[in-house]
Amino acid sequence: MADPVLSVQDLTTSFRVDGQWRSVVRDVSFDIGPQETVAVVGESGSGKSVTAMSIMRLLPPGNARSTGRIEFEGEDLLAGPLEQMQAIRGNRIGMIFQEPMTSLNPVLKIGSQITEVLRQHRGLDGAEAEAEAVRLLDRVRIPSAAARLGEYPMNFSGGMRQRVVIAIALACAPRLLIADEPTTALDVTIQAQILELIKTLQEEEGMSVLFITHDMGVVAEISDRTVVMYRGEVVEKATTEAIFREARHPYSRALLSAVPQLGAMAGQDRPLRFPRVDMATGEIAPPPPTADTVRVNEPPVLKVDNLVTRFPVRKGILRRVVGRIHAVEDISFELRQGETLSLVGESGCGKSTTGRSLIRLEEPSGGTVGMDGHDVRGAGHSELTKIRRDVQMIFQDPFESLNPRIRIGEAIAEPMIVHGLVSRREAPARVADLLERVGLSGEMMQRFPHEFSGGQRQRICIARALALEPKLIVADESVSALDVSVKAQVINLMLDLQERYGLGYLFISHDMAVVERISHRVAVMYLGEIVEIGPRAAVFETPQHPYTRKLIAAVPVADPSRRRRRVVAGDEIRSPYRPADYVAPKRLYREVGEGHFVQIHESEAAA
Amino acid sequence: MSGYLFSRLLQTLVTLFVMSVLVFGGLHMVGNPVDVLLSPTATPAERLEVIRSFGLDQPVWVQYGIFLKNALSGDLGNSFVYNQPALHLILQRMPATLELAAAALVMALALGLPLGVYAGLRPNGILAKSIMAFSILGFSLPTFWIGLVMIMVFAVQLGWLPSSGRGDTVDVFGVPLSLFTLDGLAHIALPAFNLALFKISLVIRITRAGVLETMQLDFVRFARAKGLPEGRIVRIHVLKNTLIPLITVIGLELGSLIAFAVVTETIFAWPGMGKLIIDSIAVLDRPVILAYLMITVVMFSLINLAVDILYSIVDPRVRLEGN
Questions:
Q1: Which of these, A39, A89, A394, B238, could form a disulfide with A478 (CB 3.0-4.6 Å)?
Q2: ipTM beyond cut 0.90
Q3: Cβ A154–B317 below 8 Å, yes or no?
């Protein structure tokens, strides 16, 4: 290999915690060659981001220190004074971060945030700098770039902001781009666009890329070589093909086996658990098959007909309704006990509003919701209480859905006591039982939420939902915020519980690969409408609607040998905002297979 | 924008109306100005004459009706004591108070901002800790006591600065101001600093908290990764975000500076509105009290309007809309 652009040798980074130095990254070494892409992959706390920050020396100098060598084009970055980094950062090494929403200063114009880099490193001024900024925005494919220089970040969508951030990072044609989880916060079709953009720009510029991610699918798509980190250490490094073909370290194997792979379910007609990996030996135990849980002979527990939820948008002194957000528009579906129906779609498609409308956390504007024979929309206060007992929700963020000042035992007991299921005296025994059922121990009930990890907290939320013996659980992005291996465990747990209690799940998610694992049936939502609904195998293997196909095509394939250049449409996610006098067209569906319906396109419907 | 201004105007009018009802009713309930104003030796006939001339013989709602009718044509009534229009009395004293408040505000910002930014950037340094200790003193020591100590030190012992009055004034557009003469500046220095002390401490604390918080945000990290010098990051990226909460607080505080400069004006014998209102309350000079409170309402509304407009300039996410 030619001389590496970046060579990290024995990097150890420590933080000062309560006066003690604690190492969070230990003896990390890797090289990045010219025009090469190296992925550093690991779960939260693995030290991958700290490694990236150490290279740029962005950690707070008083509370963090790094030892070892970081050679960038032959120069040791760790040796010199901190000021020397100013000439390197943003100039010879560009960096982009995870959150495009917060990486840009909200009160400064986009133009000035780009030109300040050009002024600093390239000595451009005034009109020159502005012309160059327009060129940069053009290069990251932002339409009508010149007009947008005067706008603020709030006028840009997440994907567009990440493009601006990339434009800034590449403003000085750096030799190396460090990308720290650049697509994690983005929707899947937008993620595909950004990955494609990074690849194209890399070829055009001939730069090297250090790509930090937790997503093995993204790794397979983009990197030439891969470094796997676990608890602050490098456990394996090899070419990406080798890692995916024959990972040697047990942790790499565990990580890979936990990665949901789109298409891995071909030929299966039921949901499938994730395989378990023995962390000592690296042996992979095949998952036990799931039982057939769907109670086809009973009437559906949930029946939704023509549900509509709209939010008025008011303007002016008289607060006149000038338009409406058509969050949920004329959707119908059924759900049986023991069945998992997934609602998939991108941000703003109305999938969460659908879940919330079912138990009137949002008041629907039309349609009917039948829950176990009760009419939810017509229910009075006491009937609604009874309905809400049968439908429990689990939310995305396990950190925010538990009150930090309430012991978890009380948090789980509270709904049971409120609904009069148990008395205060009997509660502890019941809570202990519930905790054990979700794989925790009964002694933990005295602890507070901050004493648990994210995965454990999500288990607690599940235990709390189970406490009322619901018939249906609405899981709103419940595993999206979890690490890959924890996500696999929680999904396995959900499948176990479905088998034991015949729970129905309405699984709301943007993650196509997870949806493929867990669902019996899938409904694809777009702009508040269901565009396609059917058995999982049919929707994934023979998708009919163009939007379903686009969604599936955008999911990164966790297999480097199947890597392909995709033609990615550069369009944005559209908004379901409509003017006040808009009349939603009546949608028709065509049955293309057994239980597999697809929305008929307007032109077809007219014919 | 015009819809916004319109709804703001409406709000102010409603507030003025409610305020006038409350104050009118409240003043009617406490004491009788005639008892305070009239000498004890006055005959019953004189007494009745005074009551009639003040219009106090009418039922209270009739009195209020007359007040309202006159107020709509710009007449807020005559002072019982000076027998001059109350509005005129107040407007005469207003420049002195506004001048004092403005000087105090400038001091609060000129000292508070840099000290606060410094304390926010080096929160653990000795100097930063001293600044914070000073700000606690500024918060907790009573204004009148500090005023007295300052007079003792700078006026009595060192003899550097005068201790009372406004000094020489020049007329600027017909308004007498002391900011433009050396003697005037010497006179305003002590009272303005006395009035500013609390505000300086407040500005320091808010700025420090804002800087500390903003320095942790992602865009500051990204600005560092862009290779920008630390100076630019603080001046452009951090300061503009810190100004947002500061503007709100400063707006509210400016109102209170003007309305409640009473203590400082009393200690330094500053001929402003504060002194007038205290005297008027003592003798139950109802028209002056009422007019003063009405003017305060208008002033607060104007300041709030200015704050909102400033806000929308500093923070592009804020849009001014009528509601």
A1: A394
A2: no
A3: yes
Of A56, A104, A116, the CB nearest to B225: A56
| A284 exposure class (CB count in 10 Å sphere: 0-12, 13-18, 19+) | middle
Judged by a CB distance cut-off of 8 A, whether residue A316 touches chain B is yes
Distance from CA of B247 to the nearest CA of A (A): 15
Q: What is the reported pTM?
A: 0.79
pLDDT tens for A134-185 read 998 888 888 888 888 888 888 887 788 888 998 999 888 899 999 998 887 7
Give A351's contacts (C-beta < 8 A, 6+ positions apart): A343, A344, A345, A508, A510, A525
Contact A86 B227 (CB under 8 A): yes
CATH H-level, domain B86-146+194-314: superfamily: MetI-like (1.10.3720.10)
Judge whether B218 is closer than 8 Å to chain A, CB to CB: yes
Does B1 reach chain A within 8 Å, measured CB to CB? no
* pLDDT score for B323: 43
Residues (pLDDT < 50) of chain B are 322-323
> In Å, how far is A108's CA from the nearest CA of chain B?
8
Q: What is the mean pLDDT of chain A?
A: 86
**Topology match between the domains A6-257 and A302-405+469-544+576-606:** yes
pLDDT at B204: 93
- Annotated domain spans of chain B: 86-146+194-314
Domain range annotation of chain A: 6-257, 302-405+469-544+576-606
What average pLDDT does this structure show over A277-282? 70
Q: Which of A85, A90, A154 sits opposite B316 (nearest CB)?
A: A154
A553, A263 contact by CB (below 8 A): no
Give tens-digit pLDDT for A385-410.
889 999 999 987 777 788 888 999 99
Helical pair B182-215 and B239-259, crossing angle rounded to 10 deg: 140
Residue of B nearest to A88 (CA): B227
Asked if residue A220 lies in contact with residue A556, where contact means CB atoms within 8 angstroms, the answer is yes
A93 confidence band (pLDDT: 50, 70, 90)? very high
Q: Are A186 and A159 in contact (CB under 8 A)?
A: yes
CATH: 3.20.20.70, 3.30.420.40, 3.20.20.410, 3.40.50.300. Which one for A302-405+469-544+576-606? 3.40.50.300
Residue A273: pLDDT above 70? yes
Mean pLDDT of A318-328: 82
More confident residue, A603 or A16: A16
Q: What is the DSSP letter of A576?
A: -
Cross-chain Cβ contact B226/A116 below 8 Å: yes
Neighbours of A86 (CB within 10 A): 17
* Mean pLDDT, residues A47-51: 89
Q: Is the pLDDT of residue A449 over 80?
A: yes
| Topology adopted by domain A6-257 | Rossmann fold (3.40.50)
Confidence of residue A605 (pLDDT cuts 50, 70, 90): low
Q: Is there a contact between B224 and A89 if contact means CB atoms under 8 Å apart? A: yes
| Rounded alpha-carbon distances, angstroms, from residue A25 to A51, A72, A237, B165 | 7, 19, 16, 68
**CA nearest A225: which of A470, A40, A452?**
A40
Tell me the β-bridge partners of A521. Answer: A341, A535
Look up residue B107 and give its two tokens. 């001091």
Indicate yes or no: CB of B228 within 8 angstroms of CB of A85. no
> What is the distance in angstroms between the Cα of A118 and the nearest Cα belonging to chain B?
10
- To which residue do tokens 């049968």 refer? A390
pLDDT at A447 over 50: yes
B 95-154 near A (Cβ less than 8 A): none
**Residue A211: what pLDDT?**
92
Among partner residues B3, B219, B227, which is closest to A317 by beta-carbon distance?
B3
Give CA B97 to chain center in angstroms.
8
